[in-house]
Amino acid sequence: MTISLWQRTPSHETEQCDVAIIGAGISGLSAALELESRGIRCIVLEADYAGSKASGRNAGYLIRGAAENYALASQNLGRDMARYLWEWTQQNLIGLKQLGLESTPGFAQRPSCVVAIGDPEHSELIESHRLMTEDGLHVSLIEPGNAPDDSLWRSGKPTLGLLNPEDAVCSPIDLVQLLAASLSTTPVFEHAEVYRIEDDGNRIRIRTRPVDVVCSRVLVCTNAYASELIRDLDGIITPNRGQMLAIKPDDPSDADLEFAYYLNHGSEYVRAAPDGQIIFGGARTYHAEHEQTSADDVSDEVQGHLEQFVRELITENYQVTARWSGIMGFSPDGMPIVTQTKVHTLDNPNVWFCGGLTGHGMSMGYQTGRHAARVMLEDEPTRFGLDRFAQA
Ligand SMILES: Cc1cc2nc3c(=O)[nH]c(=O)nc-3n(C[C@H](O)[C@H](O)[C@H](O)COP(=O)(O)OP(=O)(O)OC[C@H]3O[C@@H](n4cnc5c(N)ncnc54)[C@H](O)[C@@H]3O)c2cc1C
């Protein structure tokens, strides 16, 4: 983004801090909490309002792992990395509970169930169960004969489910508000889009319309919008739109889904939501080219596809209550990226990035944001650096 001469606010406030965090989604707010707990003076700068982007628009799954099942993740990332990632997401939920997430209104301790509709996913789930059990990860299999009597299983489509008993769901906006409310010394400036980062003698000056911030270090947590500020993440963090649909079945019992379901290698997901509604998301993979966008909009194609899933898997009789989209920041391997980086407008080693949480920032963002803060302080090594792509 650029700002015209006329758009600049004439009497600018200038704030000073140690670390400026750009972006008040889950990543940025979690990083701020960690820095604040270490006595570091931070400021969070947010273009819109806290939780306005992916962090306030997602499906609210606090699911262990990543998009692919454990067997495929072990193949793609290596067994050790898959296990590390699954444990990472377990720790994420433990941390959020310690912060008080369980007492937010939208929280429910609801197991997630990865569902296969035939092969090859059916065989992959059997293999995932074997590998996860070997790796000490608590998991079980559900077959149609011992499945709960809910509309998804009654559809007759699922052939197998892999149950993660400790998973949960929540309202994403509750989670963002919990993170923001847990900050005590860090101001969050909303409607403060960063349009330039520049040299200020031996410090860094960050320009937004309402305020300038002069700081020693910057942590960029702008997710899908990373490449607007950062030069070396172009083509590495890519914007991908996720669309969602909320419906209310005419028969209220159709809304009683026992688990938070995840289908077609994570391409689709469906779960019960408040007030007898069901939320359905995904179908992006069938229209992948069009969905590689940062436009906040819904398309007839994806929404039509989602409604087709509703009719096949839940019910023919329903009303649509909401449609929306959110923009995810994808990394090439679906794992977070935590790295020292360079912005377009400044050559300074004290700029860091945390993001690329792909479709799993609820499940790993709290853990990753806090980790990024420690990595920046050189208190912790990271397995999420860009060097992994060079090695690959
Ligand atoms: C439809 C959908 C469903 C999803 N479902 C799930 C799910 O069920 N479970 C799960 O684990 N994950 C899910 N995700 C993914 C999850 O929402 C994201 O991974 C996570 O929210 C990313 O958090 P973040 O803080 O990195 O990014 P964001 O929430 O996108 O925050 C980035 C912030 O940076 C701000 N910003 C950008 N540019 C600037 C600038 N120049 N100056 C200042 N501020 C700026 C933005 O306004 C934004 O608030 C889903 C995502 C979508 C879109």
Query: What is the count of distinct domains?
Result: 2
CATH class group of the largest domain: Alpha Beta
Biggest sheet details? 8 strands, mixed
CATH architectural category of the largest domain? 3-Layer(bba) Sandwich
Helix content: 25-40%
User: Could you tell me the mean pLDDT?
Assistant: 95
How many β-strands, per DSSP?
A: 20
Give the uncertain stretches in residue-range form: none
Query: What class, by secondary structure content?
Result: alpha/beta
CATH fold name of the largest domain: FAD/NAD(P)-binding domain
CATH superfamily of the largest domain: FAD/NAD(P)-binding domain
Q: Looking across the biggest beta sheet, what order are the strands in?
A: 6-7-5-15-16-17-14-18
Fraction of residues in β-strands: 25-35%
Distance between the termini: 33 Å
Tell me the Rg in angstroms.
21 Å
Task: Walk me through the structure.
It is a single chain. The protein is an alpha/beta fold and about 400 residues long. The protein folds into 2 domains: about 15-55 and about 175-235 and about 335-390, 3-Layer(bba) Sandwich (FAD/NAD(P)-binding domain), CATH 3.50.50; about 105-170 and about 240-330, D-Amino Acid Oxidase, Chain A, domain 2, CATH 3.30.9. Helices cover about 30% and strands about 25% of the residues. It has an 8-stranded mixed beta sheet with strand order 6-7-5-15-16-17-14-18, with helices on both faces. The protein has a 6-stranded mixed beta sheet with strand order 9-3-2-13-20-19, with helices on one face. Helix 1 (about 25-35) links the parallel strand 2 and strand 3. Helix 1 crosses helix 10 and helix 3 crosses helix 10. It starts with 12 loop residues before the first strand and ends with a helix. The structure holds flavin-adenine dinucleotide. Flavin-adenine dinucleotide binds near residues 27, 54, 60 and 194.
